[in-house]
Amino acid sequence: MSYMNKNIEEIHEALINKKVTSDKLVKESLKKSHEVQDKYNAFVTILDNQNGGKVTDDLLSGIPFGIKDNYSTKGILSTGSSNTLKNYIPIFNATAVENLYKHGAIPVNKTVLDEFGMGGTGTTGHTGIVHNPWDSTRMTAGSSAGSACAVAAGVYPYALGSDTGDSIRKPAAYCGIVGYKPTYGMISRYGLFPFASSLDTCGVLTRSVKDAAIVTDAMKGIDSKDMTSWDSSNIHLASDLTSDVKGKKLFYIKEIVDKKNYPHMTKELENHLDNFMEVVEKCKSLGMSVEEVSFPKDVLEALPSTYVVISCAEATSNLSNLTGFSFGPRAEGKSWQEELKNFRTTGFSPLIKRRFVIGSYVLQAENQDRYFKNAQRVRRLIVDLMKDAFKKYDALILPVGTGPAKKLETDEQVNTDETAILDEHLQIGNFGGFPSITIPDGFVSDLPVGVNITGNCYDDQDVLNIAYALESAMDYKNQIAKEMK
Ligand code: GLN
After folding, report:
1. What is the CATH number of the domain that holds 407?
2. Kind and range of the H or E run holding 109
3. Structural domain containing residue 440
4. How many domains does the chain have?
């Protein structure tokens, strides 16, 4: 009997009724981890010596889970999938991880990401490419690549992710699972390796909306070590989950889903957009209204470059502490300057170095106003447009990406101008710190695709309820990837 392909409540019930022990669950999860590692290369570390834990009334107790390798884990290698930290073992736990431990959750592996979360392909980690378990010739997307792969492959019911632009929500779509990024600050970022602090969000990948709610309830909370965290003790996502969403008002952005904006449309993209429109009809059949809203095209078109400027600037500053002196493998050199230079030159991949060049450039005194401050103004414009829309609507609904998982040989980061907004609009969720969830909503070319729901800050319950209702009206809950069945 296999349990790791079930949802959290089912596994908990089996534990309580003594149909299975936590030790057995851990064994099953570790065995699957190795299978998945051989086929898809999803892990930096597999915790082979892990034992089961105590089973209590707590839903997460005794149940295995995975941790993205940019979360600090005490005594466990935490690399950020970078050569610069390939031997780094933290002496403390990230708060999110610590909170899960308090609930009795059992970690079984650390998952691969794009180096320090900077990327969207799952191909840039120092341990190599992560493959998609629906079709191993395709990418998982990233940066939470290993977490998405493992959850979709049935290694455990959930894994931690982090999301700065779309890093939970895009791989969730490509792997046919759920990816949830709560409101900024709901989960403490303490111990999450920083990428772009004003956008970074902790979150989770699961196979159902309810599981995402259960895990987030356990991870969230105000934390004196993260001054942007806030008190959410009055929010109980899982127990308040309801599929009664009658009267909720949704909108989608016309410019993003209008076929006329894609004169070079592929059959796949057309099917993806048609599929989205069917989901819109599903929402209406659940008693919600869905309206088309127009956003200024120039603001939308500025979105990807705004993201690049802000995220690269913040990353450059955040990652300047990686010198090879305090942690990471120290480099050779005749002086400390040379050691530092050699460490950073050989340690980071070209992709990251390019981002540091952009970041340094836009932060230079003479460029700051033109680039960095301008990007902040555009960010404000976009957030204001959204806040305005949220006065009238409960949530934004949009398709995720341009279709299903891309072939590994294509570089996902290189978009045509035409589809850039479609591929990058999830960044809006990070600009505003909005709660945002992706759920699977069907298949295109035999591969899973996803739909995203984004709401106003602190309206996490609404966002999850809408996703929960929609999930129940469709057939894609608890999906396990085809190659793993
Ligand atoms: N793909 C985006 C990037 O490369 C988002 C990454 C993320 O959310 N961590 O920056």
Report:
1. 3.90.1300.10
2. strand 106-111
3. 1-485
4. 1
